[in-house]
Amino acid sequence: MMYKVSEEDEKWNFTEGENWICLGIPYKSRNSWLHVLLPTQKFGLAALLKEFNSDLLKKCIIERNVKRIRVTLPVFQIENKVDFNDILKSFGLTQIFEGCGVKNIFNETHFVDKFMQLCNIDVNQYGTTASAATVATMQLASKTIREEEREFYADHPFAFFVTLVDNNIPDQVKSVLMMGIYN
C-alpha cells in the first residue's frame, strides 16, 4: 500500500454518492486524470458496476477540489492485450486482412496480419504510468491529520479510469482512455 497526503495547490478532486466515493488525481499536465471509484461497502463493487453509466461517470468527475486528502492506495500494475482481428471482421472489415488488403499506401499490396491494442497502467509510490507514458509524480508527505482533510482508503476492490480532459478541467472529458478493476 502507498500513502500520500495531497498538497493544497495540487487540487485533487473528491466526489461522493450514496454508495461510493471517487478520487480524481491529475497527471502532471492536468490534461489527464486518474479516477478511483471506491464503493463504500467492502464487497459492493459488483453492485456499483451494475449501475455504472454515463450519469454516474459525470457525478464522479464533477469538479470538486479538496484542499487536502489522505490517500492510501494499493500498488498495482495491470496490463491488458486485446486482439481486434475477429472484432473488426465481425464488423465487415475483412479485406484489410486478405491479400488484396491495404492499397495506395505502399508500392506493393499489404494486408493486416494482427490488429491489437495493449493497455498498461502502473500505480506505485512514485506516481502513475499509463500506456501513453503520462506520469504524475507523488512525494511522501507528513502524516499530520487536520480537520479539513478528507480520507480515501482503498483497502477493497475498486474501479479506476483515466480521462482526457479539455482546458485542464476534470469534468470536461474528451474521452475515457482506459478503465479497469482492481480486485
From TrEMBL:
Pfam families: Serpin (PF00079). Coiled coil: none annotated. PANTHER family: GH10112P-RELATED, SERINE PROTEASE INHIBITOR, SERPIN. Residues 10-167 form the Serpin domain. Belongs to the serpin family. InterPro entries: Serpin_dom (IPR023796), Serpin_fam (IPR000215), Serpin_sf (IPR036186), Serpin_sf_1 (IPR042178), Serpin_sf_2 (IPR042185). GO terms for cellular component: extracellular space. One of its GO terms (molecular function) is serine-type endopeptidase inhibitor activity. SUPFAM superfamilies: Serpins. This is Serpin domain-containing protein. It comes from the Eukaryota.
